């Protein structure tokens, strides 16, 4: 026992606690009275409060999670024992108890293991000799009600021994809880009898069924939690690589080997001393994290969310380092521990499997040996197949030839074999053999490149290499980002897991499994001759994360260093380095630039320079976005990428139209007139005069026809304003078209109404008609899978827009109501950035803003742009988790670019104030109805 534990016991002072309980009984005429109960309650409550405060202080001092969990369990033990003693000795004493007037209290579940988190449930088993009597019922109720009143979450069961055994035999959950049972107080002979019968009648000869059930239960739990240990907001208790996995492992070995401690497994040779130490260190770290989480939040919080990661990192003593913040260093440690838990799982499951194979009945064991006896893997003398899994022929395979470490994974790939846990365990134990000499070995590098570019299952093999520690050792640059997370809502996985998932997406595209989701990528991939370049670029594109230098630039340097090692030519190396450096370019341009602006396409074509690079970058971008996490990719992003690809392909191949914009607009006007041939001539001619050149050049003919019918019906109905909605299920986008009187603040009001309705805007196109009206198309992210549900939602948003524009609803109030229910504290900070560029478009000034997203932000930004007398031609909204990047194509009210530097400075200052949340609340200045708008035009772009 440590000195701190002695200090804790001294503070708790068990003997003094019992003496004070006895004093309460002595001072009371009736120990079962309400007064005595209240006095006892106050004493025990004070003991718990003081004890927990001391335990929290000790946790901050020594950092030991296991010690904290044990101290909490010890405190709980003494509270329950004091309660039970008071109830049986003073409140409800029995002078000559009969056999039936005995009972025992046992801790079960996590409490039975002698470990508790601050918010853990207290699981109790009340053991009776036969059945409940009035006396036992009084005692049990006294203890339980007091615990409940003190705020504990108590789970309990009251059973006799026969019921304990019968239920344990039929219910695996109860059996598992009983496996951890621990005597607390009462009639110890009752507990001993139950424990003896449980061991003889339940545990003996049932290990195989128990192991199978617990492993199946674990798999279901992993599936619910995301089936990866690399989620950036992991569940510390239930997630893959969490405490429950360690507990499951100990259940299995305790049940099978009939051991009581981890060190017993070392004596049996199941674990090495080093592996046992890893088990204990992993458990201690996870308990420390969990206890800090519970103390911080004041509840049984098990998900290590972004909201609390910074504070937990600080509590555990992590500090910022160049390239990695304190919270990122903490989370990297967390994921390394989760990886250790995975290694231990593999090692212990292999040992259990071997033991069970030895125990199989004689005839069936011989039959299986004959049918499935190990045989050599074709083409090698060092590896065998064992039940469809690859394993080593002896323990010196890797020492004889370290290349065999890489060859193990290569052979598993080409022969479609799973891995025997013994082989992976030996690979992990042989990591010291992976040195500079092996990294420079031509054969080892050839085998690795074959694994990476395999047409079978490259990501699975690479993931096994990573879990065994081989991948990070063979490519040290990859080892630096193993288990690294980025403190961002956008990234769902650690960096290494993201890279492996990107390779997996590419493999699926190449196999034709993503035809529906990525038709363009699937169609152009056969035209990419050098597929090795693409796979290598995907593996390396984020490999420089966590460095002070921009990761794209630093990653290109890493690629130039690594590619020659794997046999790439100078030309191939240049291409890989270029792809790594530019891996974000296509995504950013597609999502934040006006793809109908010719200058956008010209600039991107200049960056790409060739069709081959364009194809490579398109596929890499698709894989990168898909691998970020569930829900990040959608059809709208796919459509933006396809548009950018198509326009750039035309320019690079010389097919981009040289006809002037005015001529193309006139051709579009003629086509629209032909499509409206069933309209009366005068009505058709009047309508064709409504639209300016930008509308005719950027809007598809089908949409122009749809808009024409919408505008015609609105005017005929005499409506001053109207909305029209349409869903795009493939693009995962919903379109809301607004036709209303033009107004300088129209876009601000519309975006504010969308925010008030809970809609996330992805893009916006704004046009003015010749008669002073506005035709704005707002694209919002889809919320429902079914079109019927999404249409109803879109119509509600449209109705909200109409109500605000008509002045029936007050925008500041509806936004405030929306924001009120949202959590105020934000764990993220994004430094506000505003840039103004006149070189990105031939006709517009491009303003790009970057900041922390919040409800109503887009409305506030557009309101300020209106205040600054800027005319918005288009808006492009890109959200990366908590960060938003908004791009606006603007002119002054005369249709000219903004060139004055003083005006630039004023725009930047005002917009930064909005992003920082310190701008005057512009929403209170918003007009609440625009039925009688000012005559001033907000867009003068007809000359463009």
From TrEMBL:
Residues 1-378 are annotated as: Uridylyltransferase. SMART domains: HDc. Coiled coil: none annotated. Its cofactor is Mg(2+). Its EC number is 2.7.7.59, 3.1.4.-. CDD domains: ACT_ACR-UUR-like_2 (cd04899), ACT_UUR-like_1 (cd04900), HDc (cd00077), NT_GlnE_GlnD_like (cd05401). It comes from the Bacteria. It holds the Pfam family NTP_transf_2. Residues 735-817, 846-926 form the ACT domain. Keywords: Hydrolase, Magnesium, Multifunctional enzyme, Nucleotidyltransferase, Repeat, Transferase. Has four distinct domains: an N-terminal nucleotidyltransferase (NT) domain responsible for UTase activity, a central HD domain that encodes UR activity, and two C-terminal ACT domains that seem to have a role in glutamine sensing. Belongs to the GlnD family. This is Bifunctional uridylyltransferase/uridylyl-removing enzyme. It comes from Hoeflea poritis. The gene is glnD.
């Amino acid at each position: 026992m440590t000195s701190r534990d002695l200090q804790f016991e001294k503070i708790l002072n068990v003997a003094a606690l019992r003496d004070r309980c006895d004093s309460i009984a002595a001072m009371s005429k009736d120990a079962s009275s309400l007064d005595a109960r209240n006095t006892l309650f106050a004493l025990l409550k004070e003991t718990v409060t003081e004890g927990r405060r001391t335990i929290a202080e000790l946790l901050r001092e020594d950092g030991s999670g296991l010690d904290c969990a044990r101290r909490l369990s010890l405190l709980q033990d003494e509270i329950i024992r004091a309660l039970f003693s008071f109830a049986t000795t003073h409140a409800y004493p029995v002078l000559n108890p009969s056999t039936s007037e005995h009972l025992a209290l046992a801790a079960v579940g996590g409490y039975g293991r002698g470990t508790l988190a601050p918010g853990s449930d207290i699981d109790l088993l009340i053991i009776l000799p036969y059945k409940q009597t009035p006396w036992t019922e009084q005692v049990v109720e006294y203890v339980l009600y007091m615990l409940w009143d003190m705020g504990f979450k108590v789970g309990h069961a009251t059973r006799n021994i026969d019921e304990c055994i019968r239920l344990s035999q039929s219910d695996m959950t109860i059996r598992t809880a009983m496996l951890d049972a621990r005597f607390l107080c009462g009639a110890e002979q009752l507990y001993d009898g139950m424990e003896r019968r449980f061991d003889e009648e339940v545990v003996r000869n049932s290990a195989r069924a128990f192991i199978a059930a617990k492993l199946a239960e674990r798999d279901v739990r992993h599936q619910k939690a995301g089936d990866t240990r690399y989620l950036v907001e992991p569940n510390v208790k239930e997630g893959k690589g969490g405490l429950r996995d360690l507990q499951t492992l100990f259940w299995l070995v305790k049940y099978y080997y009939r051991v009581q401690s981890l060190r017993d497994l070392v004596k049996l040779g199941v674990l090495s001393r080093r592996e046992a130490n890893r088990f204990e260190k992993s458990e201690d770290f996870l308990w420390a994290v969990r206890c800090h989480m519970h103390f911080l939040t004041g509840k049984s919080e098990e998900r290590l969310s972004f909201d609390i990661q910074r504070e937990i990192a600080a509590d555990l003593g992590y500090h910022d380092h160049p390239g990695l913040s304190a919270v990122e260093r903490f989370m990297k440690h967390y994921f390394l521990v989760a990886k250790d838990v995975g290694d231990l799982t593999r090692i212990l499951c292999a040992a259990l499997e071997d033991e069970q194979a030895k125990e199989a009945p004689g005839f069936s064991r011989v039959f299986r040996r004959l049918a499935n006896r190990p045989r050599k893997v074709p083409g090698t003398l060092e590896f065998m197949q064992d039940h469809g899994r690859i394993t080593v022929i002896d323990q010196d395979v890797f020492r004889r030839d370290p290349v065999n470490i890489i060859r193990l994974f290569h052979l598993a790939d080409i022969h479609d074999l799973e891995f025997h846990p013994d082989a992976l365990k030996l690979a992990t134990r042989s990591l010291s053999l992976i040195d500079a000499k092996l990294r420079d070995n031509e054969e080892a590098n050839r085998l690795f490149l074959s694994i990476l570019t395999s047409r079978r299952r490259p990501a699975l093999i690479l993931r096994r290499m990573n879990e065994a520690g081989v991948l990070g050792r063979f490519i040290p640059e990859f080892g630096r980002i193993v288990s690294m997370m980025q403190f961002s809502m956008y990234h769902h996985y650690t960096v290494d897991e993201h890279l492996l998932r990107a390779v997996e997406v590419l493999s699926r595209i190449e196999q034709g499994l993503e035809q529906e989701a990525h038709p363009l990528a699937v169609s152009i991939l056969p035209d990419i001759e050098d597929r090795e370049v693409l796979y290598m670029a995907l593996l390396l594109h984020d490999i420089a994360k966590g460095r002070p230098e921009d990761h794209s630039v630093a990653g290109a340097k890493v690629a130039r260093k690594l590619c020659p090692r794997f046999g790439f030519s100078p030309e191939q190396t240049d291409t890989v380095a270029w792809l790594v450096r530019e891996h974000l370019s296509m995504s950013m341009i597609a999502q934040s630039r006006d793809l109908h602006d010719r200058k956008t396409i010209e600039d991107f074509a200049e960056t790409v320079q060739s069709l081959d690079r364009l194809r490579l970058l398109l596929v890499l971008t698709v894989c990168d976005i898909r691998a970020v996490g569930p829900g990040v990719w959608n059809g709208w992003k796919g459509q933006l990428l396809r548009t950018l690809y198509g326009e750039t392909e035309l320019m690079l191949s010389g097919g981009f139209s040289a006809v002037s914009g005015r001529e193309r607009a006139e051709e579009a006007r003629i086509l629209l007139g032909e499509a409206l041939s069933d309209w009366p001539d005068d009505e058709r001619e009047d309508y064709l005069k409504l639209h300016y050149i930008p509308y005719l050049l950027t809007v598809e003919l089908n949409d122009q026809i749809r808009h024409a019918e919408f505008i015609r019906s609105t005017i005929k109905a005499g409506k001053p304003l109207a909305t029209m909605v349409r869903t795009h299920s493939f693009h995962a986008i919903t379109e809301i078209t607004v036709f209303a009187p033009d107004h300088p603040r129209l876009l601000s009001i519309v975006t504010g109404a969308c925010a008030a309705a809970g809609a996330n805007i992805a893009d916006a196109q704004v046009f003015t008609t010749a008669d002073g009206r506005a035709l704005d198309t707002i694209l919002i992210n889809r919320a429902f899978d079914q079109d019927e549900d999404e249409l109803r939602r879109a119509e509600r948003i449209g109705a909200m827009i109409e109500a605000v524009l008509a002045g029936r609803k007050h925008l500041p109030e509806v936004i405030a109501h929306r924001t009120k229910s949202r959590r105020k504290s934000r764990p993220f900070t994004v430094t506000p950035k505003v840039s103004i560029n006149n070189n990105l478009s031939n006709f517009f000034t491009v303003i790009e803003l970057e900041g922390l997203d919040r409800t109503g932000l887009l409305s506030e930004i557009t309101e300020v742009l209106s205040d600054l007398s800027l005319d918005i031609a288009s808006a492009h909204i890109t959200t990366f988790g908590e960060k938003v990047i908004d791009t606006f194509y603007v002119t002054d009210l005369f249709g000219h670019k903004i060139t004055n530097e003083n005006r630039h400075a004023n725009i930047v200052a005002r917009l930064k104030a909005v992003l920082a949340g310190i701008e005057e609340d512009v929403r209170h200045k918003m007009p609440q109805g625009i039925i009688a708008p000012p005559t001033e035009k907000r867009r003068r772009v007809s000359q463009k």
